[in-house]
Every structure is written in C-alpha cells, then in structure tokens.
Amino acid sequence: MRPTLNPIKRHRDRCRETRAHMSGYLDRELDEQTAARVKRHIRWCPSCGRMFTNLSRTVAGLRGLRDLPAAADEPSPQP
Predict the structure, then answer these.
(1) Following DSSP, what letter does each residue of the chain receive, concatenated?
(2) Which of 16, 18, 50, 78 could lock 41 by a disulfide, CB 3.0 to 4.6 Å apart?
(3) Residue ranges of the chain whose pLDDT lies below 50
C-alpha cells in the first residue's frame, strides 16, 4: 500500500491497523516495534483508546469466568 499525504486518510489507515493489532497487543504477541506503535496510537486517538479500553474490560471479564466453578450438567431439583 502506498503512503498517502491526506492526513484524514492516513489517520483512518492507522486506526484500521491499530484495531487489527489490539488483540495481539493485549495478549503480548506483537513484536516490540508494532506494540510501541499500537500503544502510541491508543494514547492519542480517543476512538481507538475507547475501543481498547472496552476490549481490555471484555477480555478481563472473560478471563475471570475461567476461575468460576463450572455449572452442574444436571438440572437442580424442583421443589
């Protein structure tokens, strides 16, 4: 892809790239350079920052579910 001089398009492209890497960033799967680029972008872009906060909270909630005991497969007795 050829770099663009249009600042709005360039920002949208950076947002698109950042959002594609958010999950990998949360899981610490990115190389240092890509992780630094994602971190920098989510700090100054309000939209991507909100998305990252929501994703982080969702992942934390799902990880918390792993720690809960599994529900019994059998239905509870009815009175």
Answers:
(1) ----S-HHHHHHHHHHHHHHHHHHHHTT-S-HHHHHHHHHHHHH-HHHHHHHHHHHHHHHHHHHHHTSPPPPSSPPPP-
(2) 18
(3) none
